[in-house]
Design goal:
The chain has 12 helices and 12 strands. The protein is α/β, with parallel strands linked by helices. The strands form 3 sheets. The chain has a 6-stranded parallel sheet with strand order 2-1-3-4-5-11, with helices on both faces. A 4-stranded parallel sheet has the order 7-6-8-9, sandwiched between helices. It has a two-stranded antiparallel ribbon with strand order 10-12.
Protein backbone atom coordinates (compact mmCIF):
# COMPACT_ATOMS: atom_id res chain seq x y z
CA UNK A 1 0.00 0.00 0.00
CA UNK A 2 1.47 3.37 -1.03
CA UNK A 3 1.51 6.01 1.69
CA UNK A 4 1.28 9.16 -0.40
CA UNK A 5 2.77 12.24 1.26
CA UNK A 6 0.39 15.17 1.55
CA UNK A 7 1.33 18.42 -0.14
CA UNK A 8 2.31 21.17 2.30
CA UNK A 9 2.63 24.95 2.10
CA UNK A 10 6.42 24.45 2.02
CA UNK A 11 6.09 22.35 -1.16
CA UNK A 12 4.23 25.19 -2.88
CA UNK A 13 6.82 27.68 -1.61
CA UNK A 14 9.70 25.59 -3.03
CA UNK A 15 8.10 25.44 -6.49
CA UNK A 16 7.65 29.24 -6.60
CA UNK A 17 10.86 30.04 -4.69
CA UNK A 18 9.03 32.21 -2.17
CA UNK A 19 8.56 31.91 1.60
CA UNK A 20 5.98 29.61 3.23
CA UNK A 21 4.59 32.67 4.99
CA UNK A 22 3.93 34.35 1.63
CA UNK A 23 2.14 31.21 0.37
CA UNK A 24 -0.04 31.13 3.49
CA UNK A 25 -0.96 34.78 3.07
CA UNK A 26 -1.74 34.29 -0.63
CA UNK A 27 -4.02 31.35 0.13
CA UNK A 28 -5.86 33.53 2.65
CA UNK A 29 -6.17 36.47 0.20
CA UNK A 30 -4.00 38.76 2.30
CA UNK A 31 -4.14 42.26 0.72
CA UNK A 32 -0.37 42.61 1.18
CA UNK A 33 0.24 39.93 -1.45
CA UNK A 34 -0.02 40.89 -5.13
CA UNK A 35 -2.76 39.45 -7.33
CA UNK A 36 -0.08 37.94 -9.58
CA UNK A 37 1.46 36.01 -6.67
CA UNK A 38 -1.94 34.92 -5.38
CA UNK A 39 -2.85 33.56 -8.80
CA UNK A 40 0.46 31.69 -9.09
CA UNK A 41 0.15 30.21 -5.59
CA UNK A 42 -3.41 29.02 -6.17
CA UNK A 43 -2.48 27.46 -9.51
CA UNK A 44 0.46 25.52 -8.01
CA UNK A 45 -1.72 24.49 -5.05
CA UNK A 46 -4.25 23.10 -7.52
CA UNK A 47 -1.58 21.31 -9.56
CA UNK A 48 -0.13 19.68 -6.44
CA UNK A 49 -3.61 18.82 -5.10
CA UNK A 50 -2.97 20.81 -1.93
CA UNK A 51 -5.58 20.29 0.82
CA UNK A 52 -5.56 22.82 3.68
CA UNK A 53 -5.20 21.45 7.21
CA UNK A 54 -8.44 22.68 8.77
CA UNK A 55 -7.53 21.26 12.18
CA UNK A 56 -4.27 23.21 12.29
CA UNK A 57 -6.09 26.31 11.09
CA UNK A 58 -8.72 25.90 13.80
CA UNK A 59 -6.04 25.53 16.47
CA UNK A 60 -4.40 28.76 15.28
CA UNK A 61 -7.57 30.83 14.92
CA UNK A 62 -9.72 29.26 17.63
CA UNK A 63 -12.54 28.88 15.07
CA UNK A 64 -13.17 25.97 12.69
CA UNK A 65 -16.54 26.98 11.20
CA UNK A 66 -17.62 23.40 11.82
CA UNK A 67 -20.63 22.29 13.88
CA UNK A 68 -21.09 18.70 15.01
CA UNK A 69 -24.57 17.14 14.73
CA UNK A 70 -25.27 13.91 16.63
CA UNK A 71 -28.47 11.96 15.93
CA UNK A 72 -29.64 8.49 17.01
CA UNK A 73 -30.13 7.48 13.36
CA UNK A 74 -30.19 9.08 9.92
CA UNK A 75 -32.62 6.64 8.26
CA UNK A 76 -35.55 8.47 9.84
CA UNK A 77 -37.38 11.23 8.02
CA UNK A 78 -37.58 13.23 11.26
CA UNK A 79 -33.82 13.25 11.90
CA UNK A 80 -32.83 13.64 8.24
CA UNK A 81 -35.21 16.60 7.94
CA UNK A 82 -33.80 18.20 11.10
CA UNK A 83 -30.25 17.76 9.73
CA UNK A 84 -31.22 19.26 6.36
CA UNK A 85 -32.66 22.35 8.01
CA UNK A 86 -29.74 22.76 10.42
CA UNK A 87 -27.35 22.64 7.48
CA UNK A 88 -29.43 25.07 5.42
CA UNK A 89 -29.34 27.73 8.15
CA UNK A 90 -25.68 27.22 9.10
CA UNK A 91 -24.37 27.15 5.52
CA UNK A 92 -25.73 30.66 4.99
CA UNK A 93 -23.58 31.80 7.93
CA UNK A 94 -20.40 30.13 6.63
CA UNK A 95 -20.56 26.95 8.73
CA UNK A 96 -20.37 23.32 7.62
CA UNK A 97 -21.67 20.39 9.64
CA UNK A 98 -20.21 17.02 10.63
CA UNK A 99 -22.91 14.37 11.09
CA UNK A 100 -22.50 11.36 13.38
CA UNK A 101 -24.95 8.61 14.40
CA UNK A 102 -25.12 7.16 17.88
CA UNK A 103 -27.29 4.21 16.73
CA UNK A 104 -28.94 4.61 20.17
CA UNK A 105 -25.60 3.58 21.77
CA UNK A 106 -24.24 5.47 24.80
CA UNK A 107 -20.66 4.46 23.91
CA UNK A 108 -20.96 5.62 20.29
CA UNK A 109 -22.42 8.91 21.53
CA UNK A 110 -19.45 9.39 23.90
CA UNK A 111 -17.01 8.54 21.07
CA UNK A 112 -18.75 11.05 18.78
CA UNK A 113 -18.38 13.78 21.40
CA UNK A 114 -14.64 13.03 21.79
CA UNK A 115 -14.11 13.04 18.01
CA UNK A 116 -15.97 16.31 17.52
CA UNK A 117 -14.09 17.99 20.36
CA UNK A 118 -10.79 16.78 18.87
CA UNK A 119 -11.88 18.24 15.51
CA UNK A 120 -12.28 21.61 17.25
CA UNK A 121 -15.94 22.10 16.29
CA UNK A 122 -17.45 25.47 17.20
CA UNK A 123 -20.62 23.88 18.56
CA UNK A 124 -22.55 20.62 18.96
CA UNK A 125 -26.24 20.05 18.19
CA UNK A 126 -27.48 16.68 19.46
CA UNK A 127 -30.42 14.39 20.13
CA UNK A 128 -29.56 11.91 22.86
CA UNK A 129 -29.33 8.13 22.44
CA UNK A 130 -31.88 5.84 24.06
CA UNK A 131 -29.15 4.26 26.21
CA UNK A 132 -27.91 7.56 27.62
CA UNK A 133 -28.43 8.16 31.33
CA UNK A 134 -24.97 9.44 32.31
CA UNK A 135 -24.46 13.03 31.10
CA UNK A 136 -20.72 13.46 31.76
CA UNK A 137 -19.80 13.50 28.05
CA UNK A 138 -22.22 16.39 27.48
CA UNK A 139 -20.87 18.20 30.54
CA UNK A 140 -17.42 17.86 28.90
CA UNK A 141 -18.72 19.91 25.95
CA UNK A 142 -19.84 22.68 28.30
CA UNK A 143 -16.57 22.61 30.27
CA UNK A 144 -14.77 23.22 26.95
CA UNK A 145 -16.98 26.32 26.56
CA UNK A 146 -18.52 24.99 23.35
CA UNK A 147 -22.24 25.74 22.78
CA UNK A 148 -24.39 22.63 23.18
CA UNK A 149 -27.88 22.60 21.68
CA UNK A 150 -30.20 19.65 22.30
CA UNK A 151 -33.31 18.80 20.30
CA UNK A 152 -36.08 16.21 20.54
CA UNK A 153 -34.28 14.27 23.29
CA UNK A 154 -32.56 16.29 26.00
CA UNK A 155 -32.24 16.73 29.76
CA UNK A 156 -33.10 19.82 31.80
CA UNK A 157 -30.20 19.05 34.17
CA UNK A 158 -27.68 20.09 31.51
CA UNK A 159 -29.00 23.67 31.53
CA UNK A 160 -28.57 24.26 27.80
CA UNK A 161 -30.82 25.21 24.89
CA UNK A 162 -33.50 22.65 23.99
CA UNK A 163 -35.95 22.53 21.08
CA UNK A 164 -38.76 19.99 20.83
CA UNK A 165 -42.50 19.42 20.78
CA UNK A 166 -44.89 19.12 23.71
CA UNK A 167 -44.66 15.35 24.23
CA UNK A 168 -46.98 15.35 27.24
CA UNK A 169 -49.76 17.17 25.39
CA UNK A 170 -49.22 14.97 22.31
CA UNK A 171 -50.46 12.00 24.32
CA UNK A 172 -53.52 13.98 25.42
CA UNK A 173 -54.33 14.78 21.78
CA UNK A 174 -54.07 11.12 20.81
CA UNK A 175 -56.12 9.74 23.72
CA UNK A 176 -58.79 12.42 23.26
CA UNK A 177 -59.05 11.57 19.57
CA UNK A 178 -59.38 7.84 20.31
CA UNK A 179 -62.06 8.51 22.94
CA UNK A 180 -63.96 10.55 20.36
CA UNK A 181 -63.84 7.46 18.11
CA UNK A 182 -65.53 5.44 20.86
CA UNK A 183 -62.41 3.62 22.12
CA UNK A 184 -62.50 2.59 25.78
CA UNK A 185 -59.49 0.32 26.26
CA UNK A 186 -56.41 2.12 24.96
CA UNK A 187 -52.95 0.53 25.07
CA UNK A 188 -49.62 2.35 24.79
CA UNK A 189 -46.47 0.91 23.25
CA UNK A 190 -44.04 3.52 24.53
CA UNK A 191 -40.32 4.19 24.61
CA UNK A 192 -38.23 3.69 27.74
CA UNK A 193 -39.15 5.84 30.75
CA UNK A 194 -35.47 6.69 31.30
CA UNK A 195 -35.64 8.93 28.20
CA UNK A 196 -37.35 12.19 29.10
CA UNK A 197 -39.51 12.54 25.96
CA UNK A 198 -40.86 9.00 26.23
CA UNK A 199 -41.46 9.45 29.95
CA UNK A 200 -43.46 12.59 29.16
CA UNK A 201 -45.49 10.70 26.56
CA UNK A 202 -46.22 7.97 29.12
CA UNK A 203 -47.23 10.57 31.74
CA UNK A 204 -49.50 12.26 29.22
CA UNK A 205 -51.09 8.92 28.32
CA UNK A 206 -51.72 8.03 31.99
CA UNK A 207 -53.14 11.45 32.86
CA UNK A 208 -55.36 11.46 29.76
CA UNK A 209 -56.80 8.06 30.70
CA UNK A 210 -57.60 9.44 34.17
CA UNK A 211 -59.18 12.52 32.63
CA UNK A 212 -61.59 10.39 30.59
CA UNK A 213 -62.16 7.85 33.38
CA UNK A 214 -60.64 5.02 31.36
CA UNK A 215 -58.92 1.96 32.91
CA UNK A 216 -55.14 1.95 33.31
CA UNK A 217 -54.04 -1.69 33.25
CA UNK A 218 -50.35 -2.52 33.63
CA UNK A 219 -50.67 -5.00 30.76
CA UNK A 220 -51.69 -2.16 28.42
CA UNK A 221 -48.56 -0.05 29.03
CA UNK A 222 -45.44 -1.55 27.43
CA UNK A 223 -41.96 0.01 27.16
CA UNK A 224 -39.83 -0.79 24.11
CA UNK A 225 -37.04 0.40 21.81
CA UNK A 226 -39.70 1.28 19.19
CA UNK A 227 -38.18 -0.63 16.27
CA UNK A 228 -40.36 -2.38 13.66
CA UNK A 229 -39.52 -5.70 15.34
CA UNK A 230 -40.51 -4.29 18.74
CA UNK A 231 -43.80 -3.07 17.31
CA UNK A 232 -44.51 -6.57 16.02
CA UNK A 233 -43.55 -8.29 19.30
CA UNK A 234 -45.53 -5.92 21.51
CA UNK A 235 -48.63 -6.06 19.32
CA UNK A 236 -48.54 -9.86 19.43
CA UNK A 237 -48.32 -9.54 23.20
CA UNK A 238 -51.40 -7.29 23.25
CA UNK A 239 -53.37 -9.58 20.92
CA UNK A 240 -52.66 -12.51 23.25
CA UNK A 241 -54.47 -10.77 26.14
CA UNK A 242 -57.75 -12.21 27.31
CA UNK A 243 -59.19 -8.68 27.17
CA UNK A 244 -57.70 -7.07 24.06
CA UNK A 245 -57.38 -3.29 23.65
CA UNK A 246 -59.64 -1.53 21.16
CA UNK A 247 -56.94 1.05 20.37
CA UNK A 248 -53.13 1.15 20.44
CA UNK A 249 -51.07 4.34 20.67
CA UNK A 250 -47.46 3.72 19.61
CA UNK A 251 -44.75 6.27 20.51
CA UNK A 252 -42.91 5.84 17.19
CA UNK A 253 -43.99 5.30 13.58
CA UNK A 254 -41.60 2.41 12.85
CA UNK A 255 -43.00 0.44 15.78
CA UNK A 256 -46.51 1.43 14.63
CA UNK A 257 -45.67 -0.06 11.22
CA UNK A 258 -44.67 -3.35 12.88
CA UNK A 259 -47.84 -3.28 14.96
CA UNK A 260 -49.98 -2.74 11.87
CA UNK A 261 -48.31 -5.66 10.08
CA UNK A 262 -49.29 -8.00 12.92
CA UNK A 263 -52.88 -6.69 13.00
CA UNK A 264 -53.27 -7.27 9.26
CA UNK A 265 -51.65 -10.72 9.43
CA UNK A 266 -54.18 -11.66 12.12
CA UNK A 267 -57.12 -10.28 10.11
CA UNK A 268 -57.89 -7.65 12.73
CA UNK A 269 -59.99 -4.89 11.22
CA UNK A 270 -58.33 -1.46 11.51
CA UNK A 271 -59.78 0.75 12.98
CA UNK A 272 -63.10 -1.06 13.64
CA UNK A 273 -61.66 -3.68 15.97
CA UNK A 274 -58.41 -1.96 16.96
CA UNK A 275 -57.57 1.66 16.12
CA UNK A 276 -53.91 2.57 15.69
CA UNK A 277 -51.95 5.84 16.13
CA UNK A 278 -48.21 6.35 15.61
CA UNK A 279 -45.78 9.17 16.34
CA UNK A 280 -43.41 11.11 14.05
CA UNK A 281 -45.38 11.45 10.81
CA UNK A 282 -42.87 9.48 8.73
CA UNK A 283 -43.75 9.71 5.00
CA UNK A 284 -44.69 6.02 4.79
CA UNK A 285 -47.56 6.52 7.26
CA UNK A 286 -49.57 8.30 4.55
CA UNK A 287 -48.82 5.64 1.90
CA UNK A 288 -49.88 2.50 3.76
CA UNK A 289 -53.29 0.83 3.59
CA UNK A 290 -54.78 1.78 5.91
CA UNK A 291 -52.79 5.00 6.33
CA UNK A 292 -51.56 5.53 9.90
CA UNK A 293 -52.60 8.49 12.05
CA UNK A 294 -49.54 10.15 13.57
CA UNK A 295 -48.10 13.17 15.40
CA UNK A 296 -46.30 15.75 13.27
CA UNK A 297 -43.10 16.74 15.14
CA UNK A 298 -42.34 19.85 13.03
CA UNK A 299 -38.83 18.68 12.06
CA UNK A 300 -38.22 21.67 9.75
CA UNK A 301 -38.87 24.18 12.52
CA UNK A 302 -36.85 22.18 15.07
CA UNK A 303 -33.84 22.09 12.72
CA UNK A 304 -33.97 25.80 11.99
CA UNK A 305 -34.49 26.75 15.66
CA UNK A 306 -31.57 24.52 16.75
CA UNK A 307 -29.24 26.15 14.22
CA UNK A 308 -30.41 29.63 15.21
CA UNK A 309 -29.83 28.83 18.90
CA UNK A 310 -26.22 27.89 18.11
CA UNK A 311 -25.69 31.09 16.09
CA UNK A 312 -26.87 33.22 19.02
CA UNK A 313 -24.10 31.72 21.17
CA UNK A 314 -21.52 31.81 18.38
CA UNK A 315 -21.93 35.59 18.08
CA UNK A 316 -21.46 36.22 21.82
CA UNK A 317 -18.10 37.46 23.08
CA UNK A 318 -18.23 35.27 26.20
CA UNK A 319 -19.52 31.76 26.86
CA UNK A 320 -22.60 31.36 29.03
CA UNK A 321 -25.45 28.85 28.64
CA UNK A 322 -28.58 28.30 30.68
CA UNK A 323 -31.76 26.28 30.27
CA UNK A 324 -33.66 27.81 27.36
CA UNK A 325 -36.53 25.64 26.11
CA UNK A 326 -38.47 26.16 22.90
CA UNK A 327 -41.50 23.85 23.00
CA UNK A 328 -43.61 23.56 19.86
CA UNK A 329 -47.27 22.56 19.86
CA UNK A 330 -47.90 19.05 18.58
CA UNK A 331 -50.21 18.37 15.63
CA UNK A 332 -52.18 15.14 15.24
CA UNK A 333 -52.59 14.04 11.63
CA UNK A 334 -55.73 11.87 11.56
CA UNK A 335 -55.74 9.11 8.93
CA UNK A 336 -57.60 5.85 8.22
CA UNK A 337 -56.04 3.75 11.00
CA UNK A 338 -57.93 5.59 13.74
CA UNK A 339 -60.77 7.39 11.99
CA UNK A 340 -63.79 5.16 12.59
CA UNK A 341 -66.21 7.89 11.54
CA UNK A 342 -65.01 7.62 7.95
CA UNK A 343 -65.58 3.85 7.79
Amino acid sequence: MINKKKTTIKDIANVLNISAAAVSKALHNDPRISDKTKKAVKQVAKNLNYQPNHLASALRSGKSNLVGVIVPKTNSNFFSSVIENIEQVLNKEGYNIIITQSKESFKKECDSIDTLLFTQVDGIIASMANETTNLEHFEKVKSNEIPLILFDRGENDLNVDYIGIDDYNSSHLIVEHLVEQGCKRIAHIGGYKRTRIFNNRIKGYVDALNKFNLPLDDELLIESSLTIEDGRDKMEQLLALKNRPDAVYVAGDYAALGAQQVLLENNVKIPDEIALVGFGNEPFTALLTPSISSINQHSEIIGKKAAEAFLVHAKKSSFKQSLNKIILNAELIIRDSSNKKNQ
